Amino acid sequence: MFAKKVIVVAVSLGLLAAGAVQADPLTVYGKLNVSAQNSDDGAGQFSELKSNASRFGVKGDYKLEDDLTLIYQLEWEVDVSDEANEKNIKARDQFIGLTGSFGTIKAGRNDTALKLSQGKTDLFNDYEADLKTLWKGENRMSNSLAYITPKFAEFSLMISHIMEDSEKGVDGQSVALMYGDENLKESTVFASVSMDNDVNGYDSSRVFVQGKVAKIKLGAGLHQQEVMAGGTKEDGYLVSAAYPLQKFEVKAQYQTLEDHDGYTLGADYKIGKETKLFAWYSSFDFFNKADTDYLAIGLEHKF
Q1: Which of 16, 17, 36, 189 places its Cα 20 to 30 Å from the Cα of 217?
Q2: CA–CA separation, 33 vs 154, rounded Å?
Q3: How far apart are the C-alpha atoms of 120 and 208, rounded to whole Å?
Q4: Is 16 helix (H, G, I), strand (E, B) or coil?
Q5: 205, 195 in Cβ contact below 8 A?
Q6: What SS3 class is residue 67?
Q7: Do residues 239 and 220 lie in contact, with contact meaning Cβ atoms separated by under 8 Å?
Q8: Nearby residues of 259 by Cβ (< 8 Å), 6 or more positions away
Q9: Are 247 and 275 in contact (CB under 8 A)?
């Protein structure tokens, strides 16, 4: 583990040094998100600190010939609530690619098109109520090639190809057609339709839409998944709503998959441009296992 940390630091410092010599734009960024949480996972209640996908990384670009630009990113998740000798560093999106008038190509470890198609509809991403609690398809795949077209009339297409990586492996594909801006700043609506073909053992498809009515941000999603090895199809839906109230944002979300369902209520409070306090309560009812309940309060800072 010590050697792994040394490698991570060395790579980061190496990129910083290269950027300084070549005067390339390079950004060091990250997010720290920690909550004190009371958890009931069905076996009993306990308190814990959770590091909700806290992360750090470096990214940048380098101008090449004509309109070509080299892009790169190295990102790691870090569990700041874990003991130092635990495996608390793991890779997230890490890639090198090219961008130009033809669009963008990335090679490495990438979120699939289907995963990215949700935009910001999931209001409790990275928490216990993350939509992956019920739905398959939240995949970050190694051996992955991704192509994103330029936007045309607010539409863009993303295609992910996951290489088989072994003689007995199977290639996978993920495709998403997206409309608008997921942050709802450049468009009033964000919408998408996406599909996975044999990605991480599942075929999945989704439709998402999110927009604003007055000040209320409303979102909805439909999902279907099927296990590749002769599994039955399962369907579910998600609805979410967020309302700004001075420095607060009040949020609610409900999600289903067949006989499983869950809801989450929460609120964020801005105490700085990149800093917020948050609290939420989440409850899930499962058909074939114990129900779960979680209550959390925490702090997030982006840099």
Answers
A1: 36
A2: 32
A3: 10
A4: helix
A5: yes
A6: coil
A7: yes
A8: 287
A9: no
Q: Write down the pLDDT at residue 18.
A: 44
Task: Give the model confidence (pLDDT) of 171-180 as tens digits.
Answer: 999 999 999 9
**Helix H or strand E encompassing 192:** strand 189-199
DSSP alpha helix (H) spans, the chain: 2-22, 113-116
3-state secondary structure of 79: coil
Structure tokens at 29: 């960024």
Cα–Cα distances in angstroms (integers) from residue 151 to residues 72, 112, 274, in the given order: 21, 18, 29
Q: What is the DSSP string of 266-291?
A: EEEEEEETTEEEEEEEEEEE-SSS--
pLDDT-based confidence at 24, cuts 50/70/90?
Answer: low
Dihedral sign of CA atoms 109, 112, 113, 116 in order: negative
CA 89, CA 91: separation in Å to the nearest integer? 7
Write the CATH number for 26.
Answer: 2.40.160.10
Q: Which two tokens stand for residue 199?
A: 């990605």
Residue 94: closest CA among 104, 105, 109, 106: 109
pLDDT tens per residue, range 136-165: 999 999 999 999 999 999 999 999 999 988
Q: Is residue 225's pLDDT more than 90?
A: yes
| 3-class secondary structure, 303 | coil
How many residues in total does the chain contain?
303
Q: How many domains does the chain have?
A: 1
The Cα–Cα gap between 62 and 19 comes to: 9
Residue with tokens 């635990």: 86
**Contact between 184 and 190 (Cβ < 8 Å):** yes
Question: What is the identity of the amino acid at 85?
Answer: N
Query: Which residue, among 283, 209, 292, has the nearest Cα to 252 in the 3D structure?
Result: 283
What pTM, to 2 d.p., does this model score? 0.88
Domain enclosing residue 130, as ranges: 2-302
